Amino acid sequence: METDVFGKALLDYLNGDYSEDITTHSSLDEEDTIPIPYLFRGYTEMPKIEQKALDLCCGTVLDIGCGAGSHSLYLQEKGLEVTALDHSVDAIETCKLRGIRNTVLSPVLDYKGQKYNTLLLLMNGIGIVGRLELLKTYLEHFKTLMGKNAQILLDSSDIIYMFEEDETEEDWDETNDDGEMPVDENSYYGEVDFTMTYKGASSNSFPWLYLDYATLQQVASECQLHCKLIKEGEHYDYLARLTFK
User: Distance from CA of residue 30 to its chain's centroid?
Assistant: First the structure.
């Protein structure tokens, strides 16, 4: 059975049992930590990109991959009708305990039947796609959750800088001769596999996607979505807004 490392850490923190942070291990041979208190931050502690995204939210909002629910909580306090969605049982329990009224426990691809004015995916939220070949699948599903004149607000990072200087984005050929995105899951540099450890427990390995803006724009166009660059961050990150063409 898969250990919900992330959700357990959130619930521990909320219950006053915080003693260590989450450690992440990636296929890029890097180890890092996720400071758990940071996941409970307020608006003023958030990066400018996240603040901008929250400022742009309107109408009914679906917070996809809500985690500890900090974005949902802020929007709810602003008076917006927000639904926090996550596939982690403990993450959703954390959101409920923090006072978020509307929560959904589900993988986003299994969630159907509702439409929203804003779909929100923050903290490299589009990373849930995992593999570039699945980006179209996710965007097409997102479209079924969008009402008329709705928007998708998402952020990501271009990690090309992590590779050797003699490797450029052009070296990772983003299209084939037919102008379509490649289907080889190993063909895109932004696909990273992670495991997380916390208090002696380890998660299963899971894929995460770091997506450069040009690729997002191209695939969005293929899905009949207009993609606009809203804001660039200080660490190769960006905020994008997708709307119906």
Answer: 20
- pLDDT for position 180: 44
CB 223 within 8 A of CB 168: no
What is 46-184+211-244's CATH topology? Answer: Rossmann fold (3.40.50)
Q: What 8-state DSSP symbol labels residue 159? A: G
pTM equals 0.90
Boundaries of every domain in the chain: 46-184+211-244
The answer to whether residue 135 scores a pLDDT higher than 90 is yes
* Pairing verdict, β 60-64 and 116-121: parallel
Query: Helices 5-14 and 89-97, interaxial angle, to 10°?
Result: 20
| Residues present in the chain in total | 245
DSSP state letter for 144: H
CA torsion, ordered 10, 14, 16, 21, to nearest 10 deg? 20
User: What pLDDT is stored for residue 179 in this prediction?
Assistant: 46
